[in-house]
Structure formats: structure tokens, C-alpha cells
Amino acid sequence: MIFYTTKTTNMNFNKIMFTLLALAGLQTIKAQENTENSLKEVIVKGFKTVNGIGHLPDSKDGIIYAGKKSEIILVDSLDANKAVNNTRQILGRIPGLNIVETESSGFTANGIATRGLNPSQSVEMNTRQNGYNVSADIYGYNESYYIPPMEAVNRIELVRGAASLQFGSQFGGLVNYVTKDAPKNKPFEFITSQTIGSYGLFNSFNSVGGNYKKLSYYGFLQYRNMEGYRPNSQQSQVSGFGKIQYNHSEKLNFGVEYSLLRNKIKMPGGLTDSLFYANPKTSTRARNWLKSPWNIITAYANYTPTENSTLSVKSTYLFSSRSLVWRNEDGGAGATDDIDPITGAYVPREVGIEKMNNTTTEVRYSQNYYLGNQKSTFAGGVRQSYAWFKRQGGGEGTTNSDFDLSITGDWGYDLDFTTTNLAPFVENIFKITKNFTITPGFRFEYLRSTAKGHKEVEGDIQITDEVRNRTFALAGLGLELKPGKNTSIYANISQAYRPIDYSQLEPFGTSSKIDPNLKDSKGFNSDLGYRGTIRNYLNFDIGAFYMAYNDRIGVTLATDPITGDYYSIRKNIANSVHQGIESYIEFNILKYFNSQSDFGLSIFNSFSYVDAKYTTGEFKGKRVEAAAETTNRIGLIFSTSKLSTTLQYNYIGDSYGDASNVMTSEDPVAGHIPSYTVLDWSASYKLNNFAIKLGANNLTDKSYFTRRTDEYPGPGIIPAVGRSFYLGFTAKFQ
């Protein structure tokens, strides 16, 4: 929301404010209209008074959102530790968001999920930047190792399960990180932000942007270094982005973008329960390293042939890799990596290398047309993708402690995977009356997967040469009724599908096994909700959901028939049902009493209750792994034109590491994940083109964890980061 001053009246300011929210918020906007509307000029000067979330319009950029549950977050409106992409503060207002906090252990970004789905590496989400995929493979290896630094992000768009029709079949829906763009009407602008913090944090973010005639450009470079919360958890990272756009006319623009990530991460290993509760800072590994360089090149064109039609084309080439050298020998998290007293040296480490490439092209077309007296909207398109993925692992590495990928002998496995995908899709908003719309949609997917190579199993060489072809259709229907100008009732149901991916076919390590009879998962999502705003003091979205997830792939315990030992196995566990309520309410107390107040004092509550349980199979009635029943986040925000500060309370209910719901186990994946409460505080002060930011995360220094893992990046419990502080300075030059 914004504060505004005007020279004339007779304008729907709520509509202006919502539009500004959806378009990422401009600081100063001047609008001129003709005398027909008796409005000469409006000057809107914006600053933060309500820092909440909004929702996407019925259609935008050729994409239909009518009848869907969606959220949009303006990153600049948030008080948060953006230097380390603190997900709790940035995305925590999304009701029911499950965040796996593993940034101190070998991941560059925390994974997310909704509605009790698996948050690890955001595998259940369709993760995008500026509308194109940034994961290694749309279906075969859809883990997210890269997201842009939050200091470079303008807004974050989320669409729940109904996103399966226009973006892909993932159960979790879409998350799209939209980077900042070239500043308007400026030939040059330079922004620099420097941040220091606990555990050796130093973050430097620098961006440039501007316009020259018909050319616009924007780019950033970020460098981040951290010693880490635990020993052996040092991280260094460089992120970069460049965009050049040629604005040929009001109807046509096209451009290119390039994103890169370079990192080097030391992994401290996982912990047993006893080690964690004795000291969560304990490290069991000192020789584990990871690199995951990422490269994405995108070319795009946007064409508006008429006022009522749009055509867009995006073509992306991703070439990236992940390299590991580690020592996670048998014995679990309690086994130490010590020097052998006989040889006087460490035992050899294991080396693994993955090379990821994919090309994806999406074409979208939209058309507004009249059906009777009402304007309806058609949107459709097609996605074509081809990915090739090489996985080499089990190589015997050196006895050294540095990052060294050299091996002795052959690889333990050497596999090549490919995925070919072709998917046309259509949706249509039928505007039945002025306030009521019906939006049916359909998507057809063709998927071809291949796996070739060999793997050594107990001294035998197994040869793989597998081809899978399948087609599937997804349909959905959305309804939306707008009883008032700023409120709506929405409902939808959409089918979803999750194919088997590479990681589910081949375990990365030896502590987990894979069921050879794995098959794809399928089901549907449904929503019913009521959302809206009341003047400039209340923002709300309250709803219920029901999701059926059939043939769900998960991890559970099994017993070795020969040794009697327990081991974890990934297989089709059973069918599960996820149902519950989600609500977001934000109330600006000062604006309620004085709508013209120059100050804002808001309180928000993001709450969800998720009942996610297996409904068939041996674990019928058990809770789905990683699915917390209750998630409750409460924030208090005070803001003026220069100062903004936020205190956020986070409560996450308990969950389990596997489908058996055992409280304790010798297996590193299985066991109880206790509930936890975390407090975060952040503030910023702006004066002209300068700003100071500071804050504290995990104020009470709570010891907790959100995940139990197998060998990577564990094995065992991955502790979350304890209390930390940060201080930063930002300057803008133009």
C-alpha cells in the first residue's frame, strides 16, 4: 500500500494502490488523462505503510490467474536480511510455506514447499526467474541450486497447484523471482550495498542500469563470503546477471539475459540426535566440498500486435554442473573421519560430478475478445524442452582435505539421462457477468526419458539402457466472484502430475536404496478462498484446500533380510491426502484511525493448518514426512517515510523424517523433527539516496533443525543457524 497526495479527486485510489502493488511499486508516478475524465494530473508519492502481500490480476503478460490462489511479494517493501536470502523473512508471509533451512551445510539456497509437500531443493515447485525455468531439468532433475540474490529481486510471484496448467504439472505450483529492471528515464544508475554480519559474513551487491535511446540495460554482481555457523562450513559465492533490451516500438521489444553463479562450499556433515542436543555446532566432517556453477542464457521477444492481443517467446539454454568430494563412510553421522593410525593418512574420499544441460522454449499468445457484452480472455501456448544430464560418482578420490576431484581407477557409476518434453496448453476466462468469471483450462504433456550407462553393485557391473515414453493430460476449472470492487471469492480444481526424476532412479550415495518398481505420481489440487482489501488498512486472504497425491514417492525404513539391519528406501509409499486452511491477514492500526496518517503500524498473521496423511498402504493414517501441521507467523511493522522496522515471530509444528513416523532410529533419515519458535528483527532507515539496514535473526538463539538427510549433505540432522546479526549500508548514484 502507499501514501498518496493528489491535485484533483474523482479517482479510485484503492485501484491505483493495487495496480502499483502488482507492478512492483513506483516511488513517484505522474499520470495525465484527457478532459473527458476531468482529471488533469495525479501525483502519487509512495512509501511503505502496509507491507503485505497482494495477488496477481486476472491476466498479465499473456498469463491467466483468474480463479487461482496467487500471491505477490514486493521485496523492497520488506525488512529482511536479504544479504543471505533469509527465506523466513522474505517468503514467510506465504501461509503454510515449509522452509528447509540447510544453507549452512552445502546448499546455496533454502528449499521451499507448500501444503505439506517436500521442501528439499524446492523439488515440488516450478522455480523460475523472469518467467523461465532455472532448475537443472524441468522434470528429470528439477532441484533448485540457483535463485537470484534477493537484493536484485523486484517481486516474487507464487501460484499454488493450479499453476500446473500454464507452467507445468508440479503439485506445489509456481514460484517466479522477477529481477529488477532498468530504471525509467535515467541514462545511468549505480547502486551499491555492503553488508557485514555474524559468522564472518561479508556481502557486496552492486548494480547498474539505465536507458539510451531505444536500449535499456540492467546488471548486477554479488560477492558473498561466510565462515559459517559451524566449523567446516565456509562458503564463497559470486552471482551475476546482465540484461539488454531493445525497445523497437510500443508494440515490440526483445532482449537477452545471462545469469551466473560461482560458489565453493565446505560441508560440515550431519549429526546424530545425541550430537545435536549436546552441541548443534558440532561438525563431523572436515574434508567435504561442493561446487555448483550455474549458467543461464535467455533470449526473448514481446509483441503486442493490437490492444487486445499479446505474443511472447522465451528461449533458454542452461549449462551447469555440481561437483562433490566427500567422505561419508558407513556408520552414519556418528562415524568420525579420522586419520588411519596404520597408514598415517586419511582414507580416500568419494568423488561425484554431475553435468546438466537443457534448452527450453515457451511461446505464449493471449487474446481479449467480446462474448456478448463482456470481455473474455484466451491464453495458450506451447513449451518444448530437451535436457541431457551426465552423472558420474563413486570414484575413489584422494586422501587430501582440499577441493580435489581427481580419482584413481574407474567411476563406480557412469550414467547418462535425457528428458524430452512437449506441452501445449490453453486457458480461457469466460466473463459471464461483470463480476463473475469461469476459467477452464487444459494441458497435454508428452514426456520421453532415457537412461544409459553402468553401475557397479557389490563387484558386479550392471548395464542400464532404458527408455520411457508417456503422455498425460491435465484439466482444470477456476471460478471467481467479485462481490465488491476490492474483494473476490475464488475456487478452482486442477489436475497435477509428477514424473519420476533422475534422483529417484539413482541414489546419490549408499545409505539409501531405490525401489526398482517406481512409477509416476498423479493427483489434483483444489482451492476455495475469500480475499480482498478494505480501504488502506486491511488486507486478507482466507481459504481452504484439498490435495490428492496418488502413488506418492517417499522415503521409509526397510529391513535387510540377511543382516537384519534397517535401511532407508525410496519408493511409491501410497496415496496421501493434504487438506487444511490457509489465511493471511494484515491490519494497519494507524491507518484505521487516520487514513491520511504519515505513519504505519501494522500487524500481520500468516497461518496454516495442514492435515497431510497417507490414506492407503502400510502407513495408512501416518503423517506425510516433512509435513508440519501448524505454521504460524506473526509480524509487527512500524514505518514512516524514512524508517521501517519489523519484528517477526515464527512457529513451525513438528514433523517426521520418513513415512514410518518413528521418533528415533539408527537410520539418518528417519526420526522426529521437533516444533520450534524463532524470532527475527530487521530495520532500515532511508535518507535521500542512502540507507542503513540492520537486524538480528533467531534472536533467542534457538537450537533447532528442519531436515534429516541421507549422505548428501549429511548424513543425519542438519542444524539451522543460531543467533546472528547483520549491518549494511546502501547508496544510490545517478
TrEMBL record:
Residues 281-699 form the TonB-dependent receptor-like beta-barrel domain. Coiled coil: none annotated. GO terms for cellular component: cell outer membrane. It is a multi-pass membrane protein. It is found in: Cell outer membrane. GO terms for biological process: siderophore-iron import into cell. Belongs to the TonB-dependent receptor family. This is TonB-dependent receptor. The lineage of its organism: Bacteria, Pseudomonadati, Bacteroidota, Flavobacteriia, Flavobacteriales.
